[in-house]
Amino acid sequence: MYSGPWFEQEDNVNATALLRFGWIASAILLLAVSGPAGAQVTGTEDSQEWVRLYEPRSDSEMPYRLMKPLGLAANKRYPVIVSLHGGGGRGTDNRKQLRAWNRLLADEARRSEYPSYVLAPQSPRLWDAEHLKSIKAIVAELPSADMDRIYLLGHSMGGHGTFILLQLDPGYFAAAAPSAGTGLPETEEFIDAPVIKDVPIWAFHGDADTVCPYEREQKLFSEMKRLGGNMKLTTWAGDGHGVAGKMITGGENGTTRCSSDRCDPEPEMLRWLFAQSLASRK
Length: 282
Prior knowledge:
The protein is of the alpha/beta class. It has helices at about 100-105, 110-115, 130-140, 155-170, 195, 215-225, 245-250, 270-275; strands at about 5-10, 15-20, 30-35, 55-60, 65, 80-85, 115-120, 145-155, 175-180, 200-205, 230-235, 255-260.
């Protein structure tokens, strides 16, 4: 088993993606091994029908996929979910950034209950300010987008990116849901809690995660409690790193804590997410 500084395993997927890179520079080695039903859009035509819902597009700097709201109407406003892939989605093929949670978000019942845009950009490197610039430009051109409800989520490297982009512009995103996003054992501290303490955050982490250690998440949560921040933390008891899909589906082994009484206690993640807006930020 590869034990380099980055390994991403996604939930509900017969795939293993291995990625080595430093937190400051781009990777020099990428090894990906996926099974026949992996999240990297393999499998039969029927099993991958959901992938077609994410239309492939590209701006001058960044390939991306876009899923439009179900029943898009010009007289309505729709939230935008920005989905950041982890190491397993890294590249420029504009396909393998679609991960386990993207498939869950494409479920017709969820799309009906929570109509929204889902924007899934792809990058060959860590998420940074240039990506945020491109994301903002894309969102600004979306018909009927609700600029008061732009949401950000991701797992592993995508969870790390969620914290990075959130700190770059905490006033742009209405809420964020990072999964296993607090970094590798050797990662230098990169989260400035006071900068993001007022953004509604619901973080997810397995307490047996040895790739992105749970202790780093606990440390951030303790700091948010001290600051009276708006952060919820769901701990998956006994789970390791492969918990990506659980931020959408939930799980019986999850325990959720709130950093303060500012947190919305809603127990269902998407219902919580769609209730958050810039206008209602406390």
